[in-house]
Design goal:
The protein is built from 2 helices and 20 strands. Helix 1 runs antiparallel to helix 2. The protein is mainly beta.
Length: 297
């Protein structure tokens, strides 16, 4: 930040002031040249003293935000902990804007390839869960019924298991907004999750698809099968999860939930690495978004 150093406290300017006082009788042109020379020498001296650039500091992350491991349990954030989102009202593909919901300590990014119809979303973020969220979100505003679907892939096979690509309906861009989402996790688990009211904890229906003897089963031998495509449909206040497991026509999976949104609300796609200060990437392709129910394919 430019305001952090006062001019009169910098070593370079301290030297300059000192010498300008000593040589005050000199002619103005000579004095200006001497002052300029001293500024350059002081600057070079500072650069030589510092040597290599200072290493970047790892952003501070509260303990509650660290991911769950064998020795650590991720817990809900403090009730009064919030960060305003970072919003960009710049179109990307079919979406009107994008945001870092909850402003993770490392900024996210996104790009769109119109040839492959792929959205590449890179984001850190502790989670999309509990009472607040951190994720990169590509959005548009809508009212009424919604159909939204996408194919999901994770380019890095070694990413955190609980990372998730999501199709999201949100009331607003605050980190604790009411929302409903269809999410696909790195573990291949799919869920329909919702935050009923602002600041509430999440609820969800979770699904895993077992497979035996299929070539597209999980290569680690667990038998889990990755769905080819996921979708979310809003019909009035009824919101349902849709899937295509192996390329068959999309179909509703599990019961719908009831959640009301006042229009206009936000509809879009997103990704969270589930690591508060570490970026990861998801690719969502062949995205379909319609301002009507019954249009998933």
């Amino acid at each position: 930040m430019l305001h952090r150093t006062e001019v009169n406290s910098h070593p370079m300017f301290s030297k300059m002031n000192f010498f300008s006082a000593v040589i005050r009788p000199a002619r103005p042109a000579v004095l200006s040249l001497l002052i300029l020379s001293l500024c350059v020498v002081a600057h070079r001296s500072d650069a030589q003293t510092s040597g290599q650039p200072a290493p970047q500091q790892t952003p501070a992350v509260p303990d509650w935000a660290q991911p769950g491991t064998a020795t650590h349990e991720q817990v809900p954030p403090p009730a009064d902990f919030h960060r305003p989102g970072t919003n960009f009202d710049k179109p990307i593909g079919i979406f009107r804007g994008q945001s870092d919901i909850g402003s993770a300590v490392v900024p996210g990014s996104a790009s769109y390839d119109p040839t492959s119809k792929q959205y590449t979303i890179t984001s850190a973020g502790y989670n999309i869960w509990y009472t607040r969220d951190e994720f990169r979100y590509l959005w548009t505003k809508m009212s009424g019924d919604v159909s939204l679907a996408a194919n999901v892939t994770f380019p890095d096979p070694k990413g955190f298991d609980d990372r998730k690509a999501v199709l999201v309906i949100r009331q607003n861009l605050d980190d604790d907004s009411e929302e409903a989402m269809a999410g696909e996790h790195g573990t291949r688990m799919i869920h329909l999750a919702w935050r009923p009211k602002r600041g509430d904890g999440f609820k969800d229906f979770e699904y895993r698809f077992g497979a035996v003897g299929l070539p597209d089963g999980d290569p680690d031998g667990s038998g889990d099968l990755k769905a080819k495509r996921i979708g979310i449909e809003k019909h009035g206040d009824s919101i349902a999860l849709f899937i295509s497991v192996r390329g068959e026509p999309m179909h509703q999976f599990g019961p719908p939930i009831m959640l009301h949104f006042d229009g206009p609300f936000y509809v879009g796609i997103g990704f969270c690495s589930h690591l508060p200060a570490t970026l990861d990437t998801a690719v969502l392709s062949n995205v379909v978004i319609e301002n009507a129910a019954g249009k998933l394919h």
